[in-house]
Write a structure and sequence with these properties.
The structure holds 2 protein chains of 2 kinds. In chain A, strand 1 and strand 2 form a beta hairpin. Chain A contains 14 helices and 13 strands. Helix content of chain A is 34%, strand content 15%. In chain B, strands 1, 2, 3, 4, 5, 6, 7 and 8 form an 8-stranded mixed beta sheet that branches. In chain B, helix 2 (16-31) packs antiparallel against helix 3 (36-59) and helix 9 (180-193) runs parallel beside helix 10. The radius of gyration of chain B is 21 Å and the shape is globular. Classes of the chains: A alpha/beta, B alpha/beta. At the A-B interface, strand 4, helix 7, helix 8, helix 9 and helix 10 of A face helix 6, helix 8, helix 9, helix 10 and helix 11 of B.
Chain lengths: 367, 323
Amino acid sequence: MNWINNVVRPKIRSFLATKREVPDNLWVKCPETGQMVFYKDLEANQFVIPGSNYHMRMGAQQRLAALFDDGVYERVSVAGVAQDPLKFRDGRRYIDRLKDAKTATELEDAVLVAEGKLDGLEVVAAAQDFRFMAGSLGMAAGEAVVTGMLRAVERKAPFILFAASGGARMQEGIMSLMQMPRTTIGVQKLRDAKLPYIVVLTDPTTGGVTASYAMLGDVHIAEPGALICFAGPRVIQQTIREQLPEGFQRSEYLLAHGMIDMVVHRHKLRETLSRVASMLMNGESLPKGDLMRPAKRMNGGKPHANGHAVDGQLIESAARSAEQGVLDAEPVSEHERFDTARLERDKSVRDIETVTAKPASKDAPRN
Amino acid sequence: MEQRNITVRTYLDFEKPIAELEGKVAELRSIGDGDGMQISEEVRKLEQKAKTALVDTYSKLTPWQKTQVARHPERPHCLDYVRELIEDFTPMAGDRYFGEDEAIMGGIGRFRGRPVMVIGHEKGSDTESRIRHNFGMAKPEGYRKAVRLMELANKFGLPVISLVDTAGAYPGIGAEERGQAEAIARSTDCCLGLGVPLIAVVIGEGGSGGAVGIASANRILMLEHAIYTVASPEAAASILWRDSAKAIDAATNMKITAQDLEDLGVIDVIIREPVGGAHRDRAAVIAACGDAIAKSLSEFANKTPEQIKQQRHERFLALGRSL
């Protein structure tokens, strides 16, 4: 594009420059099918690959813009924290890495907090950005999450969190770990104030983030195919040295295992969040609704599951929808589970019940 | 030589000079039984030398050496503390959902006359018990049991003593399948909501979320040579450098020792260990631990449940704000 810059007049050039991030690569490859998609088309489609429905990762700014009415939101400022508490270096100085991440993402740290309206309802939201040092949880990110939660308490608004994180920020050591209890206190404040806390788990949500605020929501929504776990697949594979079951630790797997309420396509996400938040905000504890008024059937009276309308027989369990491929959890056959696999090797053990109580420990010393 | 060392004690690699000196002392003792002044004089000298070397080594342990001390197989574990400090200990089992996880043990008993709830990671002390306790690496059942026991304590007004000693929560298929992350998050949540005092003591390794789950306490005490980390040095090295052999670098860089953590305000009290580490004088370290726990508990004697919870919240929210 260099020759354009040289030819085009300054005014037009500044117009070009204000456009958010012109990507180096105008074409994006679908990680699943290898299909090539024009970046503009991808952006217009909320970073969902049109053909395969693969959900690409999304920046915090784009997330929030997609959530709030007309894409309008106001950033909530977060108090500054110590930048490099441990004076850490791993090849490079941590402080330099931070600087690079800030420039690349135009963010202060991995979590962006904002407030605004969602279908007219005032909400506070935070989005975690994987581009910022893998969305890792450090002091600044922890402070942002806590600030967002307290802001919601102050505004008596629901809090929506988009989680995306590789886990703890190693470069902040123990101070990173301490964000687990700190953010949990924020969750407790929301709970005490009886305000809805809705977590959207996006790809990937792992480690200390999953093991604290991301798993403590009132409602857990996941995007299709997102990796959601405590210990990552690589770590587990190294520990137990066994093939992991297909679809392991993906959204659909978590849905089938009772860890999340629904898996929602990104195009349905905003509408689902709006519906859930507004219903939770209009319960008995905040009497507003008129019981005598006939129900307004926004969806033609059909029940919803996983952001889609479903018919009555499927309402029983959101996890069991036949029509939506996205909702089907990857099947895990019995022999792929680690207890039984071990049983077969250890012929001397007959009683399945006793073994399942203390599985896998033999593998631990190899760790 | 090797054999004698093992029967005496397990020496860590940086303790080699001490091991040699102590080995020589033992050798001289066995051959020179009552054989005049010369040998006993020599023995005394050597003993003195060994002791000086021990004091010297342990006064300036590097973070990596502390990691090794914290993992020493003969270091007293959770049940050793319970045996010495808790009378009428009555263990309790099960999470009431799925199973019993012996990596986290717990129960009620009397601590200096007062009924308390004790929970803690147990690593085991021989091959059989290590397997039974899964090397102190808990699964969701363990954390859910901890929640159950903490809620029980809260209901009946028993203070909770939590002994932390784990390399981390267990990374396995079953653990993930049953919601390891959620179990840890709920356990942390439970810790922070208690109306009774919760005193945590890091007695060995405080490993990551697996430790936080039962260590989000009013007071966090830590043994002098214990470590408390966001990830084990090996795991951190494999994340940062994709090479777990760089564990020493990670340990050095990450600020994992009790002394560093006190400076950062993460822990409240350091409990001194005997010269040469807790494993060289178990009785002494356990007694010191008991005193420190008693002192911490006494600080909450006249507090209401609301004040106790408030203190915990403020403690954690303030963390790092003055760095």
